[in-house]
Amino acid sequence: MAMGRYIGVRLLHALVILALVTMLVFVIAQLIPGDAVMAAMASSVDMNDSAVVARVRHQFGLDQSILVQFGNWLTRYLTGDWGTSIGTGQKVHAMFVQRLPVTLELFLGATAWSVVIGIPAGIVSALKRNSAVDVVVSTGTMIGVSIPSFWEAIMLIYLLGVVFPILPPSGYVPFAENPLLNLKSMVLPTFVLGTHSAGLLARYVRSSLLEVLGQDYIRTARAKGLSERAIITLHALKPAMIPVVTVIGLAWAHMLAGAFFVEVIFAIPGLGRMSVDAIFQKDFPVVQATLIAVSINVLVVNLLVDIVYGYLDPRVRVRQ
Amino acid sequence: MTAAPAAEPALLRVRDLAVEFSTAEGRVTAVDGVSFDLNEGEILALVGESGCGKSATALALLRLIAEPPGRITRGSVEFRGHDLLRASAQEIREIRGNRIAMVFQEPMTSLNPVLSIGRQVGEPLRLHKALDGADLVERCVALLESVSISEPRRRLADFPHRFSGGMRQRVMIAMGMGCAPDIIIADEPTTALDVTIQAQLLELLREQVQRYRTALMLITHNLGVVARYADRVNVMYAGRIVESASADDLYAGPRHPYTIGLLQSVPRLDRPAANRLQPIRGQPPDALAMPAGCAFHPRCPFAVARCAVEAPASRRVGEGHDVACWVDVDG
Amino acid sequence: MTDIVAIVPVRPSGASLVLRAVLRHRLATYGLIVILLFCAMAALAPWIAPYNPYEQDLYAVLSAPSAAHWFGTDNLGRDLLSRTIYGARVSLLFGIGSTALSTALGVALGLIAGFRGGWVDGLIMRVTDAFLCFPPLIFILATSAALGPGLHNVVLSFTLFGWTGFARIIRGQVLLVRELPYIEAARASGLTPHRIMLAHVLPNTLAPVIVAVTITVGLAILAESGVSFLGLGVQPPTASWGKELRVGFTYLEAVPLFSIAPGLMITLVVIAFNFLGDGLRDALDPRLKGAGPVRK
Q: What is the rounded CA–CA span in Å between residue B125 and residue B132?
């Protein structure tokens, strides 16, 4: 079954890359100037006493060979022990569990916005190419792609939170506690996060659809007597959407960067904010875990995109 | 050009058809006043070099010229007495794929890669004949069988990339014949394929049209193909038809200098081996800078003063044989 | 060298053709004008700005726009208009500088990967794959934080990440162009691979790179402002648009204009670069496939 083999190969690729990434992350942690643990210990331990330093290093396994350290670290990670945060003292995986749903809600909302705005906008601007509508949409997408997300957030907070106080300017309410307030407080953050992706999507959809419409097989469809609308819905949309799937996946994978800013500005207790704080505080266990989680996120999304691709474009299943 | 000597009126009457294209460098007249008839069950060949306007003519018949760069500027295309160029969008859609079908040049790109063959072959049937369900499947299987595709039932679910170029072209022919059209327009159906496949496909095409008495308009630059399969031939040069005759008459006695030149430049098995090939001297005209008068005159060994001034009208030189030339030339 | 040129088919000089095509593209022209204006603003800052951007007037802290201070003043009494004008220097310098470095590094590695093939190619490609697992900004942020504050660290971080995109583009183009007949002709005439690479392959692979460069400058400017917004990057008292936005956000209700001006500048410059990139892409379109040779 071509599809099964296709998925299998993709999965293997992903695992290999994941292995490489974990090594990369581990190596980066080793290379950072300044020993994190030592820095953390500096306050409570006399750094000049070499015996004490040696003991602490031994305690944290820093005196063993790199490979052994890597091995230990890998085992720890695979069993769910992601270390303890230097900043908060919490268990890292506990912090993740706490904040993941929040960020996930943010991501899903943003993706929803981008798809709902981006795809129709792209289709319309392709079909009404060079008309006034196209110009408006193109300008909008250009702004969406160029605007810094933190500025957009600030502007929207000012307009819709201060000048016309419709939406709460910041603060997060868990869904379980108060669904309506939760959704209200997430409107602006998800919109801001989704803007860039929406612009990107619209541009890709437009160029993809225009390219498809110029293909020979569209002319064949027209020669068969199909109406323009039937040509678009039955023949043009499916091939045009194929590269779009990749873009949606790409946008999701890169959303964490935007989430940083959004969570900081809107005071949302998600993974983004946690990562920003950890980076500034040099809280390495958290940073490490974040980098790995981010990579896993990207790899999983890429895998899903490949699978959907295989379903949409039958030619891909044969090519390896 | 007048109708062939038959009692019934022509199936398709094209009069003074003209097509223009706007390019970055200026306006190009691709088709400059073309007129011809197509009769029922007839195989008509439209011959000429690349760029002479034969494909544009074919596309214009079904109004498939892409409107932004292209435009049909004048003329009429009467199909069973009804002018297609002035028909409504709805009417022309009902004719496309149904009464007049088209087979294109590029089998590799003319089929939608993400839709199954069955879907695409069945589309005209579903659209024009309201076939559905099991009936539709059976008809599609029969169509694939008729173009000699093995295991047709299984192949219906396959996608185009699993078919070779020759097989895709067979599928295109099947797709075209599906609704038993009155006319099939085949635009260089075999140019992109190997020579051995070419012969098979043309035989297939001929067999199909003879079986259903479909008229075939065959567009090609290959004189050998024309000799073997065509009933009548129209020779095109620089957007105009310069000679029109039955295939026999054309090969036996060409009257236009261009046709004569063409036939002399093609190797023939029935000629003495001692004869050398005579290429036509000069280059085809630049579409943006057409010569005044007759477009062929710069290359014509028989040209006279008038040829550089006035474009020749066509005149009758024999039964069903018309030539657009000022000079009386004997091939 | 002249012998080789005789074998290779000739085409009119690319640069002027491209420039003309770009200028025909209206949006791209606007982009170019805006970019030039910003460059002028950055270069002429000392003469245009009404005040010294570091000069503090503690009697006029957080004042609203007035005749004396068109954009008002920040929390240390510094004129915001002047700081906005000087901010252009940081953004443009960073944008162009880090893009230049990324391009140089990326093109070099991409050429090597495409030309050598084999395990060198494989290694470089796997490395870019691994890098591309991270959203760029996170990587840049993490690296900047690790290296410490300061604009030079942000430049370094951006370059460390930015080269990957260029490497992939160039490598892809090299693979395409390398099989073309005229390269075989050059090889058959006895040119060394080194020479072929520099004189024949490189000019024809540059089209998508040029487009990518303009887009990257825009991304770099966004990256720098983002990093500065969060507190890394340029250090006080240097003025940067990102920094100003941070201040603006803190005092949003008091002086909303703070938040508008710097952000608007960033957006306009990035849009300009994107327009230019679009125009270049259209102008270079047929060449994007590496179709034809360029006259040497």
A: 8
Query: Are B215 and B12 spatial neighbours (Cβ–Cβ below 8 Å)?
Result: yes
B133-146 and B165-177 helices, crossing angle to 10°: 130
Of A258, A240, A142, A250, nearest to C215 by C-alpha is A142
Helix (H) or strand (E) holding B46: strand B43-47
**Cross-strand pairs, B101:** B184
pLDDT tens digits for range B208-254: 888 888 999 999 988 888 888 899 999 999 999 999 999 999 888 88
The total number of structural domains in chain B stands at 1
From the CA atom positions of chain A, what is the Rg in Å? 24
What CATH number does the domain containing B230 carry?
3.40.50.300
Amino acid at C192: T
Smallest CA-to-CA distance from A20 within A287, A258, A295 is with A295
Give the global pTM. Answer: 0.79
Letter for the amino acid at C216? Answer: T
Peptide bond before residue B68 is cis, with ω within 30 degrees of 0: no
C27-50+72-291: what fold?
Answer: MetI-like fold (1.10.3720)
The whole-angstrom separation of Cα C197 and Cα B3 is 64
Backbone φ and ψ of C232, nearest 5°: -90, -165
Question: Could you write out the DSSP letters of every residue in A221-238?
Answer: HHHTT--HHHIIIIIIHH
Running DSSP on this structure, what letter comes out for residue C9?
A: -
CA distances from B284 to B103, B237, B273, B278, B298 (A): 27, 9, 28, 16, 10
- B288 in a structural domain: yes
* Chain A residue numbers touching C135 (CB-CB < 8 A): 253-257, 294, 298
Residue whose C-alpha is closest to residue B20's, from B35, B30, B6, B34:
B30
Q: How many C-beta atoms surround the C-beta of residue C110 within 10 A?
A: 28
State the residue range of the domain holding B17: 12-111+163-323
CB C237 within 8 A of CB C247: no
Give the confidence band of B140 by pLDDT, cuts at 50, 70, 90: very high
Return the higher-pLDDT residue of B144 and C172.
B144
3-state SS, residue B185: strand
Which chain A residues contact residue C229 at CB under 8 A?
Answer: 148, 150, 261
Residue of C145, C226, C256 lying closest to A261 (CB–CB): C226
**Chain C 27-56, residues with CB within 8 Å of chain A CB atoms:** none
Report in angstroms the alpha-carbon separations of C142 from A27, A38, B299. 14, 20, 73
pLDDT in tens, A228-265: 999 999 999 988 888 888 888 888 877 877 888 898 88
